[in-house]
């Protein structure tokens, strides 16, 4: 069972890591600006699912198993990097249009937003580094039971990421009127694309 100091340390470390600009938050802001609150929260849902996946890997030691299958690990790493490059290409050459506040978003777009959030997180070097390198320094993973994982770490991770992500979403929606022009959207999306390219390069270098 985790004590209060470990819970607070984990929450603080996760909150700081989530707030640091990266491909996930870049996509979250871009989607929130272009699609509104619902699109933003769908991306956030995908981001949270990705984090929960790596949290589970770290807790149950699956990351250590993966290290023994170097060829598979390399394949996954290259696949994630290529996907980030693909997303960067889409963001860079996106066809920007005037933002219509209150426009309904269809289910296909919301599903696409959620899947984008999930895949971005799974290929995000920052997320991988946090759960596989920083997390063991914050929490004694050998002492984490199934009950602790399910009743404390999972809900805590969801709450922290939901809180941080919601701040980014509402801030992005708040300034939508400033980004209504095609030029402003182009700057935003190309900035997000640049972050994704940097993340892909970082993944391959590491």
Give the mean pLDDT.
81
Strand residues, percent: under 5%
Number of helices: 9
Give the helix level as a range of percent. over 70%
What is the alpha-carbon Rg in Å? Answer: 18 Å
Helix and strand run: HHHHHHHHH
Ranges with pLDDT <50 over ≥5 residues? none
Shape: globular
Largest sheet entry:
none
The span between the termini is 34 Å
Number of strands: 0
In total, the number of domains comes to: 1
Please tell me about this protein's structure.
- The protein is globular.
- Helix 3 crosses helix 7 (125-138).
- It is an all-alpha fold and 206 residues long.
- The model has no long low-confidence stretch (mean pLDDT 81).
- Helix content is 80%, strand content 0%.
- The chain contains nine helices and no strands.
- The protein has one domain.
- The protein has helices spanning 4-19, 23-35, 37-60, 62-67, 70-92, 107-122, 125-138, 146-174, 182-205.
Please outline the helices and strands.
Elements (H helix, E strand, L loop, with lengths): L3 H16 L3 H13 L1 H24 L1 H6 L2 H23 L14 H16 L2 H14 L7 H29 L7 H24 L1
In short:
With 206 residues, this protein is mainly alpha-helical.
Keywords:
206 residues; mainly alpha; 9 helices
């Amino acid at each position: 069972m985790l004590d209060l100091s470990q819970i607070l340390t984990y929450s603080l470390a996760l909150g700081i890591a989530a707030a640091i600009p990266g491909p996930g938050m870049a996509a979250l802001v871009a989607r929130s600006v272009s699609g509104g609150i619902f699109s933003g929260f769908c991306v956030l849902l995908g981001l949270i699912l990705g984090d929960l996946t790596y949290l589970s890997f770290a807790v149950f030691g699956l990351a250590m198993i993966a290290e023994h299958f170097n060829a598979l690990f390399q394949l996954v790493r290259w696949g994630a990097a290529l996907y980030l490059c693909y997303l960067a290409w889409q963001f860079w050459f996106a066809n920007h249009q005037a933002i219509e506040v209150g426009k309904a978003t269809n289910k296909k777009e919301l599903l696409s937003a959620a899947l984008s959030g999930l895949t971005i997180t799974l290929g995000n070097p920052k997320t991988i580094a946090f759960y596989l390198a920083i997390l063991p320094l914050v929490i004694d993973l050998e002492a984490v039971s199934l009950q602790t994982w399910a009743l404390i770490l999972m809900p805590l991770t969801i709450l922290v990421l939901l809180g941080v992500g919601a701040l980014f979403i509402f801030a992005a929606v708040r300034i939508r009127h400033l980004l209504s022009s095609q030029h402003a959207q182009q700057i935003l999306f190309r900035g997000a694309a640049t972050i994704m390219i940097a993340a892909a390069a970082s993944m391959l270098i590491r």
